[in-house]
Amino acid sequence: MDWGMCSVLFCYIWHTHFTKMISKSRLEAFSDGVIAIIITIMVLELKIPHGATFESLEPLWPVFLSYIISFINIGIYWGNHHHLIHTVNHVSSKVIWANMHLLFWLSLNPFATAWMGENHFAPVTVAVYATLQNMSGLAYYILLLAIKSGHKTNAVILEVLEKQLRKGVISLIAYCVAIGVAFIHPILSAICFIAVAIMWWIPDRNIEKTLGKD
């Protein structure tokens, strides 16, 4: 094999494998960094009390509870996003912008979380928080569709993505319900949040199992 043939083979391997691996790693690394910053901003909303007693912590419970809710929620997004990226063979511009769209809505969590906590879960603040979760869920659904559109001929990946899409539809319905019932009682919205969290709590390991068989 001459040097010309070696060069052609090297370029083929570079463009079909190595560049895709870099693109996937950059996408995931960027997303991980943004999510880490979101969590950092949320924890900074936990103000240090002036007193040194347990009573001084009591006024902080709504803020701390709202932080826990959002921390779990962001963590679930991070885990599922990590597994989802494993399905990507090629990072297209459609996937990149769909991912940016998701990060935009997730980045608003610190604001909605702090507002809800500072106002002791007032109905309007809970409804706004539920709306934000609905938009984040919609953005994740759009990301799923973007990835699906780039793998139309891969039956294995399509099967996995269809399962994720079904869970996405259920989540969107639950968040829409949470918006409405927030004005009846915030606890009803919390039940919707918990139901969605349980559904997504364990990332879809079928993604890695199915791709391993491919």
Notable traits:
214 residues, mainly alpha, 8 helices
Over all CA atoms, what is the radius of gyration? 21 Å
Biggest pleated-sheet summary: none
Please give the alpha-carbon distance between the first and last residues.
32 Å
Q: Give the oligomer, counting copies of the same chain as homo and different chains as hetero.
A: single chain
Helices and strands, in order, run as: HHHHHHHH
Count of separate structural domains: 1
Molecular shape = globular
| Helical fraction | over 70%
Number of helices: 8
Q: What percent of residues are in strands?
A: under 5%
Derived from helix and strand composition plus strand pairing, the structural class reads: mainly alpha
Query: Would you tell me the overall average pLDDT?
Result: 83
Q: Total number of β-strand segments?
A: 0
Low-confidence stretches: 17-22
Q: What topology emerges from the helices and strands here?
A:
Elements (H helix, E strand, L loop, with lengths): L2 H42 L16 H25 L7 H14 L2 H10 L4 H27 L5 H27 L4 H15 L5 H8 L1
Give a written overview of the molecule.
- The protein is mainly α and 214 residues long.
- The protein has one domain (25-213).
- 79% of the residues lie in helices and 0% in strands.
- It is built from 8 helices and no strands.
- It has helices at 3-44, 61-85, 93-106, 109-118, 123-149, 155-181, 186-200, 206-213.
- Helix 2 packs antiparallel against helix 4 (109-118).
- The longest helix is centred in the first third of the chain and has 42 residues, at 3-44.
- The radius of gyration is 21 Å and the shape is globular.
- The two termini are 32 Å apart.
- Mean pLDDT is 83; it is low at 17-22.
